[in-house]
Amino acid sequence: MKIRLFALLLAALLLAGGCAERPAASSQAGETSSAQTSAEPSQPSSQDDASTPESGASDSSSGGAESAVSETGDASSAGESTTVSTNGVTQGALPESPRVEDSYFDDAVFIGDSVSLKLNLYVTKNRQSNPTLLGKAQFLTAGSMGSGNALQPVSDDSIHPLYNGEKMSLADSVAASGAKKVYIMLGMNDLAVYGVDGAVANMETLLNGILEKTPDAKIFIETATPLVKAKSIETNKLNNTNVRLYNEKLAELCAKNGWYLVDISSAVQDSEGNLNASYCSDPDDMGIHFTDEGCSVWIDYLYTHTPQ
After folding, report:
1. What DSSP string runs through 198-235?
2. What's phi and psi for 264, nearest 5 deg?
3. Which residue from 75, 81, 223, 293 could staple onto 44, CB 3.0 to 4.6 Å apart?
4. Which domain holds residue 71?
5. How many domains is the chain partitioned into structurally?
6. What is the spatial distance between Cα 146 and Cα 160, in angstroms, rounded to a whole number?
7. Side-chain-facing half-sphere of 74: CA atoms under 13 Å
8. Is 202 left (phi over 0), alpha (psi -120 to 50) or beta?
9. Which tens digits make up the pLDDT trace of 173-218?
10. Given pLDDT bands bounded at 50, 70 and 90, which one contains residue 238?
11. Is the pLDDT of residue 43 over 50?
């Protein structure tokens, strides 16, 4: 009888212990499932998706600055280095500094497309009355030039600007100029062709090629300037959302390579992040080129944003 009672008691204890273990196992499974679910949104969003024509037209432009920040925010949660625009200024850019003398730009060269070509023309015209404007800075500018087509071989039909009457690669032109400060603004002609990541990759390749020929040069990447509001909604990859994303990626590129970021975009945009209408010479056409007033603001920013 005692043996039977002992057996029954032992069975009851074993049964109770089995029931106590089951909720613990169930709870552990639930935590694992929850962890897997929360990890999925933290994966960085594909940059290709952000810059493809399918998502670029109405989606990217309607998202505006909020869309740009949310996409880089996703990348940040995955542990990637990111730079997000704050109050219109790209983080990592050179801060405001005491105004330098004209001679600071004596050993500078400015590389760019038709946007910088306008700056070149403005400086050339105003040097007639102010010969020391931007010191002795030189210009290598050409309409429709981008970092992508600048990497193509030099030919009669290539986009490369002339230096002293000779067409050569940008790396060779910079070396021939003797410049030690390289200011470069390219991207408008790259975004629609290569997308944000491709444009940044081309910029890095181009600058590394320049540094191979001029290893002691200091690199200053100027942020791409935005389009006017009327042109901010496009059916391709060139829109202000992608311009903003591109500039943020350029900031990361500068941080990685020890280059300087000069945030010209922040100086010429309005409160909504579009190109200030009074600085745009072609609001009814391309909506990206500058007036004389815009060039004056640009130059003033250059004088007051240098390494200290």
Report:
1. HHHHHHHHHHHHHHHH-TTPEEEEEPPPPPPGGGS--S
2. -60, -35
3. 75
4. 52-303
5. 1
6. 10
7. 16
8. alpha
9. 999 999 999 999 999 999 989 999 999 999 999 999 999 999 999 9
10. confident
11. no
Burial of 148-160, coded b for 16+ CB within 10 Å and e otherwise, reads bbbeeeeeeebbb
Q: Can you tell me the mean pLDDT for 113-134?
A: 98
Q: Per the domain annotation, does 200 fall within a domain?
A: yes
Write phi, then psi, for 142 (nearest 5 degrees): -155, 135
In a domain, 21, yes or no: no
Tell me the average pLDDT across 62-67. Answer: 29
Q: Which residue has the higher pLDDT, 59 or 132?
A: 132
The total of other beta-carbon atoms located within 10 Å of residue 193's CB is 15
Residue 280 · residue 294 · CB < 8 Å = yes
Phi first, then psi, for residue 226 (nearest 5°) are: -80, 170
| Element of type H or E holding 295 | helix 292-303
Which of the given ranges, 36-40, 56-60, 72-76, 225-229, has the highest pLDDT on average?
A: 225-229
DSSP 159-204: -PPEETTEE--HHHHHHHHT-SEEEEE--TTTHHHHHHHHHHHHHH
- Residue 105's CATH number: 3.40.50.1110
Task: Tell me whether residue 16 is in a domain.
Answer: no
Cα separation, 100 vs 242, whole angstroms = 32
In a domain, 1, yes or no: no
**Dihedral class, residue 195 (left if φ above 0, else alpha if ψ from -120 to 50, else beta):** left
CB 245 within 8 A of CB 223: no
In whole angstroms, give the CA distance from residue 118 to residue 139. 11
The structure tokens listed for 191 are 């975004």
Higher local confidence (pLDDT), 240 or 47: 240
pLDDT range class, residue 87, cuts 50, 70, 90? low
